[in-house]
Amino acid sequence: MTPPATTPRTILLTGAAGTVGTLMRGLLPGYGYELRSLDVAPVPGEPDAITAGLGDRAALREAVAGTDAVLHLAGISLESSFDEILRSNIEGTYNLYEAAREEGVRRIVFASSNHAVGYTPWPGKDDPLIPIDVPRRPDTFYGLSKCFGEDLAQLYWDKHGIETVSVRIGSCFPRPSSVRMLSIWMSPEDGARLFHAALTAEGVGHTVVYGSSANTRVVWDLAPARALGYEPRDDSEPYAAELIAEQGELDPAGNPDHAHLGGLFVTRPPRWEDRG
């Protein structure tokens, strides 16, 4: 772990009660951050957390005020109706950027997703790694909202000078739960390393990176993330034998659920346990 800064910086963590938010609440203070938590649901164990939705502009502005940066994890993380995605992920992200602009916050780390490029074909064994500039091909309204978030980040950099690192997260859980996740899994510890790098790297403008661990089976190019100072240390391979014994090998040619980067988001409505 990078040694904590001498003076901890205050970070607004949106989506603090969610899966990734909960993991980061436990890990990021070790890097010297003071976290200000916000979620539409109460944050367990944090009586001072801000309970507000992304549609509450006044609450968002108050939450952003006095912070040094924002780690934006809030929003719907599965497919939903367009109206729900519009309110939470699209309008809500706009509201957050406006609050940051009004309060003079100059750095946001935006939780994008591999589902922004979900219709990208799963690469063959001898194919090159998927580059960060692959054409965006969202697989759902959820994926579409992440494309919007990346474009919004670019606009606010060009127009208002707010820097953003958009992290196309794979699957951030304590352990992978499918053979597909063996390629895109990001351990919580590597997630904290990547978010720390994204919060502290200089001159990022608007930078888009993939977010995963240094997996033996990685399918996308982590060089842009490494350029921020990210040094992944974990690998999903210790979980591979058990998952392959349960589920079989990944089969992009024979299994439609494995044919695209977005997995089940492409072939059928994803369930909670299918996230990532």
What this model shows, in words?
The structure is a single chain. The protein has helices at residues 19-27, 57-64, 82-103, 141-160, 181-184, 188-200, 223-226, 240-247, 264-267, and strands spanning 9-14, 33-39, 50-51, 69-72, 107-113, 163-169, 206-211. The chain is an alpha/beta fold and 276 residues long. The chain is built from 9 helices and 7 strands. The protein has a single domain, classed as Rossmann fold (3-Layer(aba) Sandwich), CATH 3.40.50.720. Helix 3 (82-103) links the parallel strand 4 and strand 5. Helix 1 (19-27) crosses helix 6 (188-200), helix 2 crosses helix 3 (82-103) and helix 3 (82-103) runs parallel beside helix 4 (141-160).
What's a quick, concise take on this entry?
The protein has 276 residues and is α/β, with parallel strands linked by helices.
Q: With helices defined by DSSP (H or I, 4 residues minimum), what is the helix count?
A: 9
Percent range of helical residues: 25-40%
Shape: globular
Q: Give, in order, the helices and strands.
A: EHEEHEHEHEHHEHHH
CATH superfamily: NAD(P)-binding Rossmann-like Domain
Specify the oligomeric state. single chain
The count of β-strands is: 7
| Unreliable stretches | 1-6
Q: Tell me the radius of gyration.
A: 18 Å
What's the rounded overall pLDDT mean? 94
Largest sheet: 7 strands, parallel
**Tell me, what is the CATH class?**
Alpha Beta
CATH architecture: 3-Layer(aba) Sandwich
How big a fraction of the residues is strand?
5-15%
Widest sheet: strand ordering: 3-2-1-4-5-6-7
Q: What structural class do the secondary elements suggest?
A: alpha/beta
